[in-house]
Amino acid sequence: MAGTPVRRVWSASPLVLTAILLAWALALASEFTGVPGWVHHHHLLSPDMAAWASIGLFLAAWQIHIAAMMLPSTLPMIGHFRHMAAAQPRPVAARSAFLMGYLIVWTGFGIAASLTYLGVHAVIEHWHWLASRPQVGVGGVLILAGAFQFSGLKDRCMEKCRHPVAFLMAHYQRGVPAALKLGLRHGLFCLGCCWALMLVMFAVGIANLAWMAPLALLMLYEKTGSAGDKIVRPVGVVLILIGLGMMMFAGPMSIEHHHG
């Protein structure tokens, strides 16, 4: 099948488009005001904050992050589902359930990645050489993300995401529970495409605009661009080279400024 049609890419509901624009507005505002820490998982998941407040703030910030980085790349799927669900008895509920399923998958990934980050960070704190060279950890994550660009799993999941009509024709069913299940299924394929690239954001800080913007554009083009499938492996090479460079030339730096 040909690449994803463009005509329905922006046919998602105004609410979804507003969420994307608002998320980017918040990211830009936090960056240019010089106080991005309130949306950084490094600060949100902090022992200085009550556990319930820390988790709540992280989940809120992570939803903003999903809206900014992941929703744009899934707009074709959302648009086609919206079109197909229009004939259902409860189309709004079905669309809401579909999005809920998608968000559940990515929220689960965010929680798992955060807990992993905290565990790794706790170990690194006791290893002064590595703690003073955070570039080594970031470089390792970039190499992992680059290597995943060559995997068969990436290819299979990308095939599903790049052809939303074929995906929906194969799995679409009427009803709110079916819509939730379909959103979960789509979310898993989307996760299979992009988990390694999103993991990079945990290494550099989830509100780091210098990484956030190019990675979001990359994931958008991989899924919707006419040559999106052709850039996957070249991007992998670039990520691996950047990661190797960061690891090879990493010098000690102030630990206090690591997450500043």
TrEMBL record:
Keywords: Membrane, Transmembrane, Transmembrane helix. This is Metal-binding integral membrane protein. Pfam families: PpoB2. The keyword Thylakoid does not apply. It comes from the Bacteria. The keyword Cell division does not apply. The chain crosses the membrane at residues 53-78, 99-124, 136-153, 188-211, 231-250. InterPro entries: PpoB2-like.
